[in-house]
Amino acid sequence: MHLLIVEDEIQLQLQVRQQLEALGHTVDSASGGREGLYFAEEYRYDLAIIDLGLPEIDGIELIKRIRAADKDYPILILTARGDWQDKVEGLEAGADDYLTKPFHQQELVARVKALVRRSAGQSSNSWHFGPLTINYDRKLVQLNNETIELTGYEFNTLEYLARHKGKVVSKNELTEYLYAQDFERDSNTIEVFVGRLRKKIELGQKFIHTVRGQGYRFEYPS
Predict the structure, then answer these.
(1) Angle at which helices 188-201 and 171-178 cross, to 10°
(2) Can you tell me the distance from the alpha carbon of 104 to that of 22, in angstroms, rounded to the nearest whole number?
(3) Is the whole-model pTM more than 0.70?
(4) Which pLDDT does position 4 carry in this prediction?
(5) CB under 8 Å to 53, separation ≥6 — which residues?
(6) Is 177 helix (H, G, I), strand (E, B) or coil?
(7) Using CA atoms, how far apart are residues 31 and 53, in angstroms rounded to an integer?
(8) Per the count of CB atoms within 10 A, which of 21, 40, 147, 187 is most buried?
(9) Which of the 8 DSSP states describes residue 145?
C-alpha cells in the first residue's frame, strides 16, 4: 500500500514510517501541514495518518482541504489532545478514526489494516477471485490452493491492481505506488512485473487486462 504520514514530531514520524515500511508498504512523510497538503493532492494514497497539532496548516484544516480536493482514502488522526471535542472535530472534518498519543505501534498497525479493509469493502485479510486468493496481511498468493511464489514487487503490483478491481490503473500510477520518491522510477519495469505475474497466476483464467494506451485493469467475474 502507499501511505502518507504527516507528523511534526520527527522521532515519532520516523518510528511510524519504519514500522510501516517493515511491513512492505511505500510511505511518504511530511513534517508540516503545507507539505502534507502538497503530497495529499499530488499523489494517490491508500491511507493517510495525520497529526492534529501541525505547523503551518493544522490537522483539522488539512483534513478539510484533502476532502475538499475529493480525496476519499481513509484518514487516521494522531493526537495528543485528550478532549473528546477535539476527536469529534477531527471526525467531522472527514477523518475515519483516531489514536491518542502515546500509543503502541501494534495498535497503529491494526487500525491501519482495519481502515484499509473497510475502505476496500473487505471483512477479512483475504480477497478471493475464483481460484485466486490474495492474503495481503501475510503477503500470500494461492492459485487453486497452491501457493504461488512472488517477489515483493510482483506481490505489490498484484495487490494494487486487485485493490482497484475494475478500474484502469496507469503505468505511472503503479510506478508511484511501487517506488519511494527518492528512488529513480522506470515505468518500463511495470511491464516486466505484469508479464511475470501473468505467467504465474493466469493458468487458464485471465485476471490482468491491458487497456491499450491507458494501463491495466484487474477483473474477475463475480
Answers:
(1) 90
(2) 16
(3) no
(4) 96
(5) 8, 59, 79, 80, 81
(6) helix
(7) 11
(8) 40
(9) T
Task: To the nearest 10°, report the CA torsion of 182, 183, 188, 194.
Answer: -100
Which amino acid is present at 168? V
Asked whether the beta carbons of 36 and 63 are under 8 A apart, the reply is no
The C-alpha atoms of residue 196 and residue 174 are separated, in whole angstroms, by 15
Nearest to 131 by CA among 149, 155, 118, 148: 148
Contact at 8 Å (CB) between 52 and 90? yes
Q: All 3 cell numbers of residue 59?
A: 490537522
For residue 40 the three cell numbers come to 495529499
Q: Write the pLDDT tens digit of every residue in 90-133.
A: 888 999 888 888 888 889 988 888 887 776 655 456 788 889 99
Helices (H), the chain: 10-22, 33-42, 59-68, 84-93, 105-119, 152-163, 171-178, 188-201
Task: State the cell numbers at 174.
Answer: 503503479
- Alpha-carbon distance 9 to 32, whole Å? 10
Contact assessment for residue 39 and residue 4, using Cβ atoms and an 8 Å cutoff: yes
All domains in the chain, ordered by first residue:
2-119 (3.40.50.2300), 126-218 (1.10.10.10)
Contact 175, 186 (CB under 8 A): yes
Print burial letters for 131-156: b (CB count within 10 Å at least 16), e (below 16). bbbbebeeeebbbeeeebebeebbbb
C-alpha cell at 5: 504520514
User: Letter for the amino acid at 146?
Assistant: E
